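Handout, section B. The chain below has 342 residues.
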Amino acid sequence: MKTIITIFLFLSLAFSASAMDGYFKADTVRYKFDKMLIEVASTNAVKKTPHKMSMQGRVEQIQKVLAEMTVVPPADDEMITIAFRDQGEDMWVWNFKEIELSRSKRNTKSLVVFDDGTTFEKDFGRYCIYFSYRAMEMKIFVDDLNDLDFFLSDEFDKKAQQSEDFLKKEYGEKYKKGIIAWLDLRDDQVKAYYQSNAEKNLDMLIISGGIGSGWIKNTFVSDVNFRLGVSFSKKGMFKNLYAIDYSMMYDFSESNDNKFFELNHFVSLAWEHNFSDVTGQDKWYGFSVGYLVKRNNDFFKDNTFRVSVNKKINNTFMIKPELYFNDFFKNVYPGIRLSVAF
């Protein structure tokens, strides 16, 4: 029994550990200065601000690298992107080998117009300095590379602190929905503009059914299952699901004409969590606790419980390693099932 429980716990921990990769950058804030536009996509707009990211030191690194290079100025209809390699949790620029240069056409201006008539150009300037972390991406748009000196000024420090204070006051640090905002920092006071899809709510009721098969007590089993649940979103992604599952299981242990349709019925409470922060790359893991509410043969004993670890492979398939406990935990045996959703 100890071996079975150890294996079960190992599977549970392995599933959870393997799920924690990537970050979904739900917040996008654009900071408009006199000679530049800064775009920050991050996991938390309040904590990942230009002021908190020590931009002065990073710009000094960037300028040292660019001083070793000859960058041919862009044509009138071009933009040059200077991209610094992603270095994981932090970025360190050592030499010109750490960057990539690319040119793109600018046939038309990309504009955003707000309700009061305020207009901003999204791809401002002739140069885009781009660098990224795992939890943040930043683009600095300038007309001239010499404009990067603005980062080293007291004026930038003042404006950046001003914008940080504004975001903290406006949202706090425990907001749940994504922020898509434009901050105009050209005057003494911060002027904020918001895009409507920042408040999108994806919470939903789930009603589904499916079939499954597996192996329990050295016996092939099949089941028909139904689910009623609710899924909650965070910053535009489904993150948590709570559900009640009802399954009718046939075990083939006494397959004859008289008992062919004798099914055992389980009711389970389930919780599942999407550990991924990368949109389009969901990683759902969870567990459920079930009870045998209707017993029709001797395959299961009275008062049978089961505990399942749920791993969602995709929108159709889910695999469930399980432990079954007979007669209020007097004995235990493992099982595994594969469910197919309709």
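Note. The longest helix spans residues 154-171. Compare this with the example in section A.
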